[in-house]
Amino acid sequence: MEHNGKVLSFAETLRLAGDAKIFLSIAPFFRQGGHERVFSAMLSGAVAAADRSGYLDRILSPGIHYIGYRSVDPLGDLLAAVLEDPDKLQEIASEGRKQAEANHTWTHRAVAILGAVKEFLHRL
Fold this sequence. Notes:
alpha/beta, 6 helices, 13% strand
């Protein structure tokens, strides 16, 4: 990410994400998945706004854990409405962070990957 003409490291980007009110992730081709930046934004304390996908719809609730949108949604209006309600913004940030801490850290992903590898190896 670039900020004020400076290329930032991943850690610096996450620090800025935590300072943001809303962290927008645009990944319309992740129809059955999610991008790590959604969970990283949630973990940093920002409200994540992201394209809805089959995967995100199974694990998160739009309007509760994150702001989920589809390409046909008026994104500007959706974000403006949330920004006008600071209590709702804080509630989404808090619930998103709780959900991410409980289920979507890199440790959670590593355990899942190791489990999948173990299952695969047992099938050989």
